[in-house]
């Protein structure tokens, strides 16, 4: 079992930056592939970024590539999402997710592949 708690969401002006954190409790965090997803009002949940065990492999949605960076600190059981050059269309509830993996290189973009989810943190970008 893994429990995930996101934090760091807030209201920010367009062009600004935020860093989201996702703290995990439970065993073997370093064996979990991690991802960030977001859901805007009236829209489906969408993939944002994902990372493998060590953070050596990462993937990003095209809409955030070059602006967002996912990273993890396994010693702190935490995964981060650094968000720069924020746009109003980035406004959403952001969720982190975890899935156990037997492969250290696995990076997962499918929401259905994740077993554990946090409660979400609201990011609002004003124009």
Q: Biggest sheet, in brief?
A: 7 strands, mixed
Helix content: under 10%
Low-confidence spans: pLDDT under 50, at least 5 residues? none
Question: Could you spell the SSE succession in H and E letters?
Answer: EEEEEEEEEEE
Based on DSSP secondary structure assignment, what is the total number of beta strands?
11
User: What class, by secondary structure content?
Assistant: mainly beta
Number of helical segments with 4 or more residues: 0
What portion of the residues fall into strands of 2 or more residues? Answer: over 45%
The N- and C-terminal alpha carbons lie at a distance of 40 Å
Shape: globular
Average residue pLDDT = 96
Query: What is the CA-based Rg, rounded?
Result: 13 Å
Give the helix/strand layout.
Elements: E1 3-7, E2 11-13, E3 18-25, E4 32-39, E5 46-51, E6 58-60, E7 68-73, E8 78-83, E9 92-100, E10 116-117, E11 121-126
Parallel strand pairs: 2-11
Antiparallel strand pairs: 1-3, 3-8, 4-5, 4-9, 5-6, 7-8, 9-10, 9-11
Description:
- The chain has strands at residues 3-7, 11-13, 18-25, 32-39, 46-51, 58-60, 68-73, 78-83, 92-100, 116-117, 121-126.
- By secondary structure, the protein is mainly β.
- The radius of gyration is 13 Å and the shape is globular.
In short:
The protein is mainly beta and 127 residues long. The protein has strands spanning 3-7, 11-13, 18-25, 32-39, 46-51, 58-60, 68-73, 78-83, 92-100, 116-117, 121-126.
């Amino acid at each position: 079992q893994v429990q995930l708690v996101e934090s760091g969401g807030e209201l920010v002006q367009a062009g600004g930056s935020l860093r989201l954190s996702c703290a995990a409790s439970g065993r073997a965090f370093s064996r979990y592939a991690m991802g960030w997803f977001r859901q805007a009002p009236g829209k489906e949940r969408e993939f944002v970024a994902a990372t493998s065990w060590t953070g050596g492999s990462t993937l990003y949605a095209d809409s955030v590539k070059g602006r967002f960076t996912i990273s993890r600190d396994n010693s702190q059981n935490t995964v981060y999402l650094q968000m720069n050059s924020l746009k109003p269309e980035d406004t959403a509830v952001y969720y982190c997710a975890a899935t156990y993996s037997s492969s250290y290189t696995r990076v997962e973009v499918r929401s259905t592949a994740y077993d554990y989810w946090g409660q979400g943190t609201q990011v609002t970008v004003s124009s």
